[in-house]
Structures are given as structure tokens and as C-alpha cells.
């Protein structure tokens, strides 16, 4: 299926599910190209897709291939993306430029939200959103993910802002822009690898049906934007804050020493964490993404029931 003015292709199963009003969960591709090493990135992408299917929804992994927005990838496309070296990391600003150049690009949270919304998908599962980087008062490094949440009506399920960020400042920006930050199952805001950030969550809803309803009410009230659902990493997979904090400090110090900036910061820090924890951060990351995919399915099912 192709939109008249935009090269956007829905895979046959995504197109079928959407036209039948069945639950669909969007998945991003930056986590594949810039968030995890090969081959764990490919294995995770495949496992997340099967987890979504096993929990009653159709997965729609989103990427730009040869200038076309693909919503739902084939197994071969997923494999090519996981092995590719020169894929651009796309956010709101660079997405249309990549399409105009007929390039290949992986979608961040912001770009995935845009494409999911164009396709008519209401729920999206990822690992962790981007946010306000530590030291932002000097660098002004604030992820475009935050402003996307403020304007695009997609419910994003994540395990919290990544703990490499300045979490209190990230919450402040979200609050300023009217983005609901809703935690499931506990009163503390989760922090990606850890269940407890040490900060109280602004909002809590434990029932996926209420999460879907809150989004529908937002829309009915004419309020722009989506919702950030923060889902704590499963207990058995978490790396507690006291243990991960010194590792984050070490990774941040490496990034500063090497002068890493802009789009490279998050991929560099995730890779440094992988090295410094001897792979444990990646195992936790995989567990939390699978957990988020399961919750996103329950929300997508609630949306489909209306
Ligand atoms: N979740 C993960 N790993 C990732 C990401 C999310 O578990 O790599 C990606 C998302 O695409 C998110 C991006 O949008 O990290 C944040 O990048 P930045 O801080 O440059 O905005």
C-alpha cells in the first residue's frame, strides 16, 4: 500500500491488521543499528517481533530503506539493517531529508512516532527514550524524543529515560510540554537498567485499558501529543542503581575525554556500558525491551476494543 505523496509501504500483515482494526505495535530500528551490537541486535529484533505476535498483536518494525518508509519489515530487511554499517540515525529533522535522498535510515523514538502515526498505529514499544543529557546546561543536548512526545499522538512504552541522562531535568521538560509520564505497577519512576530511579513518578496507571482510555480522552479533548508509559525492567534482569551508577559515571567520563557529542553520545554510552559491565547491560536491555513489548500489546489490544 502506498500513500499518494509519500513513499510509505505497509507490510501485508501490518496493512491487513490495521484495516481490520486489529492491534498493532510499532517498533523502532535505531535500537537495532545504533543501540546493540550484531548479532544480538538481530536476535533481539526477531525475539521482540515474536513476543508481540505471541501476545496478540502484529509487530511493525519501522525503518527507511532506499528512501521509502517501511512499516513492517521482512526477515531479510531486518537482517540487512542489523548488519549495515552506514545507516543514518534519524529523528524529526533528518527523516524527510533521508527520504528525499533515497537513503537508508534507522528511526529513533521521535522518527518512529512520526511514521507510526502516519500509518495509523497508536502504540510503540522501545527500550528507553532519549532525554536531557547530563551537563545539558552547558551543551544544550536535549533529545528530540521529548518534543515529539509533546506533539505526536502515540503511546510510547519504555523502561524510563535511559539512566545515562539527567532524569530530573528530563521530567521537567516533559512536564513543561504537557507530556503525561505514567508508570505501571509502582510509585517510583524506573530508570532503564534499574527498577527505581529514586524519583517518584508523576502519574501511575496499572491497567492497560486505562492507559488506552487516557490517550483517547487526550484526543477527545483536543490535546496534542502522546503519552510516555514507563514500565520497570523485570526484577530478575535489573542492575540496581547503586551498582550501575559508578559504571555510568565511568562511561560518561570516557565520552567527555573523547569529545563525543550530538547524535553519537547515546550509542557511545550504550557501547561503553556494554564493555564496562561485560555484557550485563545488554542482557538487561534485551529483557526490558521484551517486557515493554508485552505491555504495549496489552495497550494495543485495549485500543482495538475501542
Ligand atoms: N532504547 C534502547 N536503545 C536505544 C534507543 C532506545 O534500548 O538505542 C534509541 C532510541 O532510538 C532513542 C535514542 O530515540 O536511543 C535516543 O537517542 P538520542 O539520545 O541521541 O536522542
Automatic annotation (TrEMBL):
Its cofactor is Mn(2+). GO terms for molecular function: hydrolase activity, acting on glycosyl bonds; metal ion binding; pseudouridylate synthase activity. GO terms for biological process: nucleobase catabolic process. The active site is at residues 28, 162. It catalyses: D-ribose 5-phosphate + uracil = psi-UMP + H2O. Keywords: Glycosidase, Hydrolase, Lyase, Manganese, Metal-binding. GO terms for cellular component: cytoplasm. Homotrimer. This is Pseudouridine-5'-phosphate glycosidase. It comes from Aquimixticola soesokkakensis.
Amino acid at each position: 500500500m502506498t500513500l499518494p505523496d509519500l513513499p510509505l509501504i505497509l507490510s501485508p500483515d501490518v496493512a491487513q491488521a490495521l484495516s481490520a482494526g486489529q492491534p498493532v505495535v510499532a517498533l523502532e530500528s535505531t535500537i537495532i543499528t545504533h543501540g546493540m551490537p550484531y548479532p544480538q541486535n538481530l536476535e533481539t529484533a526477531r525475539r521482540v517481533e515474536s513476543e508481540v505476535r505471541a501476545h496478540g498483536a502484529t509487530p511493525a518494525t519501522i525503518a527507511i530503506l532506499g528512501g521509502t518508509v517501511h512499516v513492517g519489515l521482512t526477515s531479510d530487511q531486518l537482517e540487512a539493517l542489523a548488519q549495515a554499517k552506514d545507516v543514518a540515525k534519524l529523528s524529526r529533522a533528518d527523516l524527510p531529508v533521508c527520504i528525499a535522498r533515497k537513503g537508508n535510515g534507522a528511526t529513533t523514538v521521535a522518527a518512529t512516532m512520526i511514521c507510526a502515526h502516519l500509518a495509523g498505529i497508536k502504540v510503540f514499544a522501545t527500550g528507553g527514550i532519549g532525554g536531557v543529557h547530563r551537563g545539558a546546561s552547558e551543551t544544550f543536548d536535549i533529545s528530540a524524543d521529548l518534543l515529539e512526545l509533546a506533539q505526536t499522538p502515540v503511546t510510547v512504552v519504555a523502561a524510563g529515560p535511559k539512566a545515562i541522562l539527567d532524569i530530573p531535568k528530563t521530567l521537567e521538560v516533559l512536564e513543561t510540554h504537557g507530556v503525561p509520564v505514567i508508570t505501571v505497577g509502582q510509585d517510583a519512576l524506573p530508570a532503564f537498567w534499574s527498577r527505581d530511579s529514586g524519583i517518584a513518578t508523576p502519574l501511575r496507571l496499572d491497567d492497560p485499558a486505562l492507559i488506552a482510555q487516557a490517550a483517547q480522552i487526550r484526543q477527545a479533548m483536543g490535546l496534542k501529543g502522546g503519552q510516555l508509559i514507563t514500565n520497570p525492567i523485570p526484577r530478575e534482569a535489573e542492575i540496581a542503581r547503586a551498582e550501575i551508577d559508578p559504571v555510568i559515571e565511568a562511561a560518561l567520563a570516557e565520552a567527555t575525554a573523547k569529545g563525543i557529542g550530538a547524535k553519537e553520545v547515546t550509542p557511545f554510552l550504550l557501547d561503553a556500558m556494554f564493555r564496562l559491565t561485560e555484557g550485563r547491560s545488554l542482557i538487561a536491555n534485551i529483557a526490558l525491551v521484551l517486557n515493554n513489548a508485552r505491555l504495549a500489546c496489552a495497550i494495543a489490544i485495549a485500543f482495538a476494543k475501542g
